[in-house]
Design goal:
With about 400 residues, this protein is of the alpha+beta class. About 35% of the residues lie in helices and about 20% in strands. It is built from 14 helices and 15 strands. A 5-stranded antiparallel β-sheet has the order 5-4-15-14-13. The protein is globular and about 65 Å long.
Length: about 400
């Protein structure tokens, strides 16, 4: 057969399209939709010569939720860095962009295979769905939601933040630069990302309380999704010391998540507590028109009551209004979000930002992680801001 494959977005969309190789197999959508793309799923296939007469020489068209402009922009935003970006349609669950760097050109996989597999930079890995990272302070969203839902904290709760807290006999947990915030509301503690307040919330929840929160957000379940994805690595909650539990409550310790799962968590908060199944394949057809439009959004999990989601969203808005993401206030879009700086044993911290926009009528959720780029505010935040702004313009 003269099956030729052309990848118009080349490396920019490689984490989504994947590759197709006679020799090395398939990945991405090439693997997930293989029987449609090759025409092996067509009803005339078994009719032999009759099929020839009916003229079916090609596979089906498969349509994705990905927006090519956003995909290209997300890929370019990561230039010169390792990391990943996920953009999700808040109300439909469709993945609008999923970028990962370093990556590869699907058209030259056969020729490049040796160098792609020899290096340790993981070019064939889709960091957005397979990359496991400590979430750092973006995990405070899970701790906050869980504490509010359990009634252990309310927006009126106040805390004394001395800049550090001693847990057990000798474990001391500190805020960034040991900054003491003094008497703060829960919202201010979240907006300024207080480690001590969120460590104390984690201890108040206890291991079973925090574990239940991660369960409600689906972190311990397989997701219905066509691309290869890693399940987050959750700590062994029942056996954590108090110090370890405090670490997990602020997104450190043995907790590892994927950017896809963090984007889904934000989609759920923005969608009043309902997490949707992440969509990527929206239609296929025999006749080249790409099939039907968007599938109706399928609810997957109820992560929290709507009023709790509303409170969390409000606090995420405060992060941008006067907290660690103040720099996003000037982006011309009403963004709510959370920065994260995740310590990692192998060098500079990873830079995180998760959020959604517009705050008053959420449409797009985002998760950005940039490896070894330092503070979330410095690198991941501006990338997220630019992409959210663009997504809202594209969506008009």
């Amino acid at each position: 057969a003269d099956a030729r494959r052309i990848y118009p977005l080349a490396a920019a969309a490689a984490p989504v399209t994947g590759y197709y190789s006679e020799k090395y197999g398939k990945s991405g959508i090439e693997a997930a939709a293989d029987r449609f793309l090759t025409g092996f799923d067509n009803p005339w296939r078994d009719l032999g010569p009759v099929a020839e007469l009916l003229g079916r020489k090609r596979g089906d068209d498969v349509r994705l939720t990905i927006d090519s402009r956003l995909q290209q922009a997300a890929y370019q935003a990561l230039a010169g860095h390792r990391g990943a970006v996920v953009l999700i349609d808040v109300n439909g669950g469709g993945i609008l962009a999923m970028a990962s760097r370093p990556t590869f050109d699907p058209a030259t996989v056969d020729q490049q295979w040796t160098s792609l597999t020899a290096g340790d930079d993981g070019s064939l890995l889709n960091r957005a769905s397979q990359g496991l990272y400590p979430p750092g302070s973006v995990a405070k969203i899970i701790t906050l939601t869980t504490a509010l839902a359990a009634g252990l904290a309310t927006p009126a709760s106040r805390y004394e933040d001395t800049g550090q807290v001693t847990i057990g006999r000798d474990y001391v947990l500190q805020n960034d630069d040991r900054e003491a915030l003094g008497t703060v509301s829960l919202e201010k503690a979240f907006a300024l990302s207080s480690n001590t307040v969120f460590a104390s919330l984690g201890l108040a929840l206890g291991d079973s309380g925090l574990a239940a929160g991660y369960h409600r957000f689906g972190f311990d379940r397989e997701i219905p999704f066509p691309l290869a994805n890693e399940r987050p690595h959750l700590p062994d909650f029942p056996h954590l010391t108090d110090g370890e539990l405090a670490q997990v409550a602020i997104g450190q310790g043995s907790l590892l998540v994927t950017p896809l799962r963090m984007a889904m968590a934000i989609q759920a908060v923005a969608n009043r507590g309902t997490m949707l199944e992440p969509q990527m394949i929206v239609g296929r057809s025999y006749d080249g028109d790409g099939g039907s439009g968007r599938q109706p959004a399928a609810a997957w999990l109820d992560v929290c009551p709507p009023q709790v989601a509303g409170t969390v969203a409000e606090m995420m808005r405060a992060v941008v209004e006067y907290g660690t993401a103040r720099f996003l206030a000037g982006y011309g879009v009403n963004i709510a979000g959370k920065t994260g700086t995740a310590q990692n044993p192998h060098g500079q911290p990873h830079s995180w930002f998760v959020g959604f926009a517009p705050y008053d009528r959420p449409q797009v959720a985002v998760a950005v992680v940039v490896e070894n780029a330092g503070y979330g505010a410095e690198y991941a935040g501006p990338v997220a801001g630019r992409l959210l702004k663009m997504a809202l313009e594209v969506g008009k």
